[in-house]
């Protein structure tokens, strides 16, 4: 049996519905989800802090969570290369490439330093978290000039930019 993939010809049609009621419901559920999800982490963190131990932290959760984030990252990066999802020849800027090179060079150099036992693995993990912190602080800067006709959304759960 031969299977033919016609992904280049497949189209998905979305219908956009403008409704104040739906928008309000969306906002309410978005904020409820955001608050519940955010608050769900605090009881365990409080117990760990109170007991001065991570005994209550299940490492299965950590491993599954990391795998989930990795899978989500592969999915999002993979979408970047799907031809019919690309937007008008967008590409990473020279400044963006330079920042990525700096970040990954730092991560790799510190990895080799950790392998050579010049720093502890805990230090390496902290250094890698500094890369994430730096990226979090600067990643939205290019959005302003690239999309001057957009504004930040009132709903942090939706993320991204909204067209005015």
Automatic annotation (TrEMBL):
Keywords: Membrane, Repeat, Transmembrane, Transmembrane helix, Transport. The chain crosses the membrane at residues 21-42, 62-85, 97-118. The keyword Repeat applies. GO terms for molecular function: L-cystine transmembrane transporter activity. SMART domains: CTNS. Gene3D superfamilies: 1.20.1280.290. It is a multi-pass membrane protein. Pfam families: PQ-loop. InterPro entries: LC_transporter (IPR005282), PQ-loop_rpt (IPR006603). The keyword Ribonucleoprotein does not apply. GO terms for cellular component: endomembrane system; lysosomal membrane. It is found in: Endomembrane system. It catalyses: L-cystine(out) + H(+)(out) = L-cystine(in) + H(+)(in). Belongs to the cystinosin family. This is Uncharacterized protein. It comes from Conger conger.
């Amino acid at each position: 049996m031969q299977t033919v993939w016609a992904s280049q010809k497949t189209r998905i049609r979305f219908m956009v519905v403008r409704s104040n009621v739906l928008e309000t419901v969306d906002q309410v559920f978005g904020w409820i989800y955001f608050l519940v999800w955010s608050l769900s982490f605090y009881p365990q963190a409080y117990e760990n802090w109170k007991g001065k131990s991570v005994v209550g932290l299940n490492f299965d959760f950590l491993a599954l969570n990391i795998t989930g984030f990795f899978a989500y990252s592969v999915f999002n990066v993979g979408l970047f290369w799907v031809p019919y999802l690309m937007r008008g020849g967008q590409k990473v800027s020279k400044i963006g490439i330079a920042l990525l090179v700096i970040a990954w060079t730092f991560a790799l150099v510190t990895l080799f330093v950790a392998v050579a036992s010049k720093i502890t693995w805990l230090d390496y993990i902290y250094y890698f978290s500094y890369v994430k912190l730096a990226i979090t602080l600067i990643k939205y800067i290019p959005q302003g000039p690239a999309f001057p006709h957009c504004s930040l959304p009132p709903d942090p759960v939706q993320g991204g930019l909204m067209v005015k």
